[in-house]
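Forum > Structural Biology > Help requests

Title: Can anyone predict the 3D structure of Methyltransferase?

Hi all, first post here. I have the sequence for Methyltransferase but no way to get a structure on my laptop. I'd be grateful if someone could post the structure tokens.
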Amino acid sequence: MRNSGYERHADDWYVEPAWCVHALLMVERPFVGTVLDPCCGGGNIVQALCSNEIEATGADIRDRADGTYPVMGYAQSLLDVRPASVVSNPPYGVAEDFIMSCLALTKDRVCVLLRLAFLEGVKRREWFPHVPLARVWVSSKRISMPPGGTDIPAKGGAIAYAWFVFEHGHTGQPKLGWLPDVRGVEA
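Reply #1:
Sure, ran it for you. Structure tokens for Methyltransferase below:
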């Protein structure tokens, strides 16, 4: 069992609540052009973006949304779509490679929902100066992400999460901020 209280999903598929995407949109400047979630799972992020009139699409390595999104790996979806930006909750185990792949094929930004602990580690400390990490938006409210494809209800979150925003052209230290409280926003 993970320290989040949920059994580990084989593909690292965990379902983020829509409110955390809406909170990101409240603190980030508007997205222009196509936004891709290359690890969209059931499509929560894509649906939240579209509900805010953002041109968004998704893909995943498995069909998790009854044929709504193409089935392909994240690298292939980036090549096929050539998005301006990426907003995603990627598998944690490939987060650095995912970010680098997204930065190579986008023009604007890459926003990834990851454990706040992603900031830790000697190797990652050496990696961060080589990527354009512009902003870290910490969620004061713990985000509960149950494994996808189950009927396990969301519990109170046990892990601190943040949106990490990598923006092309950014130099210098990243800005640290907090997501607004948007409880009750689920559409």
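The mean pLDDT is 88. The helical segments are 18-27, 44-51, 74-81, 95-104, 122-127.
Shout if anything looks off.
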